[in-house]
Amino acid sequence: MNPEEEVGGYDKGIKIAKLIFMPIFFLTVVGAYFVGNSMGYVEKEYKEANEYGFSGVVYEKKIEGGEGYRLPHCLFLNSGIRWQVSTELYDKMEIGDSVVKKSKSDSVYYYKKSGQIIIEDQNLDLRNRYLEKLKEK
Questions:
Q1: What is the residue-level pLDDT of the chain in tens, covering all 137 positions?
Q2: Which residues of 89-110 are buried (b: 16+ CB within 10 A; e: fewer)?
């Protein structure tokens, strides 16, 4: 087989693969969009996040994956929770501070040793998506 025939066969194989896999990829993306924006999915995601609760004392702070603004900034709690926070909050928290998220609440409370309490609305985006879906009904 000469090199020109090999290239022609290769190009034909790529065209066939495109004809098969592009529609499958397109349908998968469209399906994922509709499932991800369905009322049932949004409601389930919000309720799971809302019902999740934990508490603990920070025993370690760590930026995972190296240094940088976009890398995950995590607080490790003595209760076994790895809690990801914003860069701003990460800088404010210290070892020995407490973190509490009550079940059936969207707020996370950060108790500093100095007595200061920082309250963060953890589920704002999920709650807004859920409320928008409720209005559409």
A1: 555 555 566 677 777 777 787 777 777 776 666 666 666 777 788 888 888 899 999 999 988 876 656 788 899 999 999 999 988 999 999 999 999 999 988 899 999 999 999 999 888 888 888 778 777 76
A2: bbeebeeebbbbbeeebbebeb
Place of tokens 């309250």: 119
Q: How far apart are CA 78 and CA 107, in angstroms?
A: 20
Length of the chain: 137
Contacts of 52 (CB under 8 A, 6+ apart): 101, 103
Handedness of CA 37, 39, 43, 44 (dihedral sign): negative
